[in-house]
Amino acid sequence: MAHLLQHLIHLIFPNLCLVCNENLVGGEESVCFSCLSKLPYTDFHLHSANEVEKRFWGKFPVEHATSLYHYKKATAGQYLLHALKYKGEKQVGTLLGRQLGLHLSQSPFYQDIDLIVPVPLHPKKYRKRGYNQSECICDGIADVLQAPVDATNLVRLIENPTQTRKGVYERWENTKGIFGLVDASVFAGKHILLVDDVLTTGSTLEACAQAILEAPNARISVVTLALA
Ligand SMILES: [Zn+2]
After folding, report:
1. Average pLDDT for residues 105-131, to the nearest whole number?
2. Distance in Å, CA 39 to ligand 1 centroid
3. Which pLDDT score is estimated for 5?
4. How many Å lie between the centroid of ligand 1 and the Cα of residue 101?
5. Ligand 1: distance of its center to the CA of 16 in Å?
6. Long-range CB contacts (< 8 A, 24+ apart) of 17-23?
7. Is residue 167 scored above 70 in pLDDT?
8. Which residues surround ligand 1, an ion (CB under 5 A)?
9. Which residues in 90-209 belong to E strands, given as ranges?
10. Distance, CA 75 to ligand 1 centroid (Å)?
């Protein structure tokens, strides 16, 4: 309900901060600088073997990984993700993507990224939503890192995989074939920055990684806006 009311206010007054409803001033878009600065940033981009990286250990070889901020219920970070995913606020993805890009540009680990790749939606879901929220985040990151976005080579083949609580091997079997590459040679020898909106179990990112690793000598780093 609070989300809905907030959304209505923003529709009527587009020049107000999505979070605090204060007037936006010069240079501010969608979210004011004050609200942006108050997000619970992880700063994991500066640390290897951080909590995000560790989530992928034993699942696939990850170069580096980070999330921009900690996801907490009933906070600005949650509200912004919701606006990006379900309220058509695409520009929130670009804005937070730029913020993430600024962090990555200050880290030694993301200086050699060749391609920025969003977790793809199934075509049916893409048609329904009209955009891929992860691709919006990629656009923001690309603005800062000056690396190209490739949103067409990694594709989602299966819409809804059955999620089960099984062992590592069964889970691997279960996620195999959800994603695929149009042309493995495009990713060959490249350092791929795989991008999603939120990290929860990591199984979607793991399934993407399996597909990307079909490209010879591809390396993968992973970034998300939020860490749940
Ligand atoms: Zn604000």
Report:
1. 95
2. 11
3. 74
4. 21
5. 8
6. 18/79, 18/80, 18/83, 18/89, 18/92, 19/76, 19/79, 19/80
7. no
8. 17, 19-20, 32, 35
9. 115-118, 154-156, 179-181, 191-199
10. 12
Report all structural domains of the chain as residue ranges with CATH numbers, in order of start: 1-38 (no CATH), 41-227 (3.40.50.2020)
* CA of residue 97 to ligand 1 center, whole Å: 17
User: What is the model's pLDDT at position 74?
Assistant: 85
Distance from residue 37's CA to the centre of ligand 1 (Å): 9
User: In this model, does residue 160 exceed pLDDT 70?
Assistant: no
In this prediction, residue 212 carries a pLDDT of 97
CA of 21 to the centre of ligand 1 (A): 6
Supply the pLDDT for residue 2.
Answer: 63
Tokens 């889970």 belong to residue = 171
For ligand 1, the distance from its centroid to the CA atom of residue 228, given in whole angstroms, is: 22
pLDDT of 106: 97
Sign of CA dihedral 61, 70, 199, 88: negative
- Give CA–CA dist 68/86, Å, rounded: 20
**Which residues have C-beta within 8 Å of that of residue 125, sequence separation ≥ 6?**
159
Find the 18 Cα to ligand 1 centroid distance in Å. Answer: 7
Locate tokens 């309220």: which residue?
A: 87
CA distance 60 to 21: 42
CA of 157 to the centre of ligand 1 (A): 39
- Nearest to 90, CA basis, from 131, 127, 48, 59: 131
Please provide the average confidence, as pLDDT, over all residues in the chain.
91
Give the distance (Å) from ligand 1 centre to CA of residue 146. 28
